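Slide 14.
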Amino acid sequence: MTPKNKPNFQKQPSFVPNYLFGFVVFVIFSNGFCNSDIQKGYKLTLAVPAEYSLGFIGRAFLIETDQTAPNFRAAVSVEAVNGKFSCSLEVLLGDVKVWNSGHYSRFYVSEKCVLELTKDGDLRLKGPNDRVGWLSGTSRQGVERLQILRTGNLVLVDVVNRVKWQSFNFPTDVMLWGQRLNVATRLTSFRGNSTEFYSFEIQRYRIALFLHSGKLNYSYWEFKPSKNRNISFIALGSNGLGLFNDKGKKIAHIYSQRLQPLRFLSLGNRTGNLALYHYSANDRNFQASFQAINKTCDLPLGCKPCEICTFTNSCSCIGLLTKKEKDKSDCGCGEIAVGFCGRNRVEMLELEGVGSVLRDGPKMVNVSKEECASMCTSDCKCVGVLYSSAELECFFYGVVMGVKQVEKRSGLIYMVKVAKGTQRGRGKRNLKKWVLILVGVVDGLIIVLVFGGLAYYLIRRRRKKSLACDNSS
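Slide 15: predicted structure.
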């Protein structure tokens, strides 16, 4: 087991403007720039570069709200992603992307990206040869124009301003001020190439954050109304997030920790943290007013898979790496047996004083530690278990993520499945001590370095004062 650098997690103080990474592109348009609305029959063509350029973002702004900056703007965007160019319709608050048509499924194009509000009222994104990659599905519903409201809601309306389609009905990873999300709705992080992604879900009895890995789902944060009251919907106000019942009465509230009015709620694509944001006029950016999780080790991926997040917020490998894997910068999952089972093939490595932030997985109650370990070795989908000696509970995991160091007196024991014979020659007891002692040594070294540096600074300062007194006398 080797110590790693501290996890790459920082408090989310602000959003960096997207234009820092963008480039100017040539835009052909037919009805002007940033109108108050777009009428049916409108068509805009955004040129796509011939050669791929990493970090490229090109936008043509269509309509905007008449508010003090930062205001809402709708744009057609071409973005360089995974060696291709993605075409999308998006809404921005200042320079922060708050809605995107390609959040769940990207539309890749070459040569051009076309936005069209057809004469029969359908809003479409098209590529070469009129290939349609996204549409509103509002054909022949009386749609007359596209507007963006002061709330940031992008809407298609008919001649009497009845809404036929709205972006608020298709939430992505952001919830705006004034927006309402009903029970069974969720926000999701952008998946990208990873098999892991996060979600913020509104359930009948709670709101919760989830980690999704393949077909596996685990919660890692939740907030419940008192007295087991049921939730009907949530709404974001100026001073926090409100939870409401079926009668529209507020039953719980998550308050902002700043005086400035809130503008949006966001689910972090990298960390999976949930945060409320306000706009700082002095710094000219958005800053976090509240975060659901404030400790690195309480994040599901505060450390990489098969790493332990320690008390000092550093990451340590669980161990059992081959020589080839030790030479790599990443821990990897070494000899952890994924997809294997049977007592003749696998055994359990026991880590005392180690727990997990992941919840809601399968569990068994009133079982012994030995029974807990045996059930995992017999289950090919199980790679680890968390056993509580106090509650006699056994929690089963299909991933080794969200693992963190806990107090030994908590009575928690984390066990991972390894190939049979991995512990041979060391003995189970010695191997367990080896893993935990190394975690303790890493933390101890950090503490010694901090206090040693402080002592050195104080001694140097005292010597300088003594020399100054001698010179003056």
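Speaker note: The longest strand covers residues 72-81.
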